[in-house]
Amino acid sequence: MTADMSVIGMVLGASIPVQLVMIILVVASIMSWTIIFTKRRLIRRTKGASDDFEASFWSGGDLNTLYRSASRSKGGAIGMASIFESGFREFNRVQQQGDIDADKVVEECRRAMRVAQMREVDRLEQSLATLATIGSTSPYVGLFGTVWGIMNAFMGLANVQSATLATVAPPIAEALIATAMGLFAAIPAVVAYNSFVDKVVRLEYRYDGFTEEFSSILQRHARSNKGA
Length: 228
Prior knowledge:
It is a single chain. By secondary structure, the chain is an all-alpha fold. The chain has one domain. Helices cover 84% and strands 0% of the residues. The protein is built from 7 helices and no strands. The chain is rod-shaped. It starts with 6 loop residues before the first helix and ends with a helix.
């Protein structure tokens, strides 16, 4: 009887442990692609919102107008707008407390902006560790399935008097499917992880720069209000 050498046939013909490995890899691959599409959309949305806000901020508009616009954003401010909102809210709160040193005002605003920045970066980095785990472990999970399958194949050949290529090829091919599935799950996860980490780091650098520049602006405002 000729063995079914199609991919589906080899998967169905594999041993139970190898099939379990394949199921794990399929689930890992589905998780990976779900994270990739979700994270790609989130980072693109955050970058676009930050670009729009930065253009509005440096156009010389009124800070109070920008603050009201950021506060009224549907779903809440994200990206750079969220950092600005936190800093300017703290600035208004501290200013209302009375005669406070300008450096103290800026220190409080910078602290609020750092907290907002950490919250934004944490939102962007969520699930990246899962991608890294899938990318680093999937090849080994697939290799385990392959080793197990080849081991069973050779054990089965022990009872065969003459082993031919037609006898050896099907079980080994079934086992190698697990390695291929491991690579299929791992490669997109690794590529996407490296790409997303680079984009998050670039956004974080932009947030750092904006926090320092906005702190300088708030310091000038605090000193002018104190001198008025």
